[in-house]
Records
---
Amino acid sequence: MSERTDAASVDEEGGVSADATPADEAPARPVWDDAYLDDVAERLQYSFDLERDVDLDGETWPLYGQLNLEREKYFLHPSISYGRHDSDEHLFARRVDGLDTTDLDALVELGHQLADERITPNERHYSTEFTFALVVPEIDAAVRDYVSGFRERTLLKYGYYGHYEVNLLVVAPKREACVASEEADVADAFRTWDAPATRDRGLFGRLADAIFG
């Protein structure tokens, strides 16, 4: 019995394949006029399919990223496969002039709404993450406390159909400050003032987690 984990990229949903881009070649991606978001996109491009200006519940999110992973077990040979599981992440990022905990509450509710709309609960579904990243001039204490202590995980059919997470991330790049909820692993991409550990850690770290975690 063996396992195989692939990025779901060859279908119409547009996931990123682990071997679709040579290690020394950057994948094609949109370019953002916002220099900070463009820097973030440069870090995300090896893990996420990226889009500009996605409308969500009446708001425009200038940066949207989607990551799709498929985990598949097989017996003796990949042609004899079973136990296929899907993991997805949806990332939404935009700038706001001000932010308070009421705004964060609204994003959490939006995450639950998206889960109802976008997740098909079945045995194949393993996990889905909805991550909201807000770029602000500065992070006040109430927002920092809210986000740093936040985790919102929901089991589907007691976990039999997997689970979903709502993640929050708030960053003030001019102050080199970032706060993220417990499961917002993508936060490193928003800390552009720090050198990334490795260029492609996001995707392959997730692949390792899917296989061994």
---
Amino acid sequence: MLSTVVGALVMGLIFNGVVDAGIITDSSKFYGLMSVPFWQHLIIGSILFGAVFMATDPVTASQTNKGKWIYGFLIGFISIMIRVFNPAYPEGVFLAILLMNVFAPTIDHYVVQGNVKKRMKRLKVKAA
């Protein structure tokens, strides 16, 4: 849950930074949602509902601890991107959850492989 909120806040901060830097002007079609304060993205739509009740589904979510953080962060990150860049689909939380449910096994696979490599290095150091 916390990682989803962190991902949404990071994406909101990035968009606010882009607007503050002058990269996106008020004549751009993306200016409206990019200029929204980063914390308001949490209360505008259903991102908190999705983070608390839908992204935490134990069957489809990532199973490793590190994978859960990556999974949640990317849900928040992608949901704000969908909200800003796709005016036809203003609430991107559920699409982001669906996309990350597809990639959850891949995230777990790479997290487990990283742990295996770390343990193999540790084993080689002890054996030497």
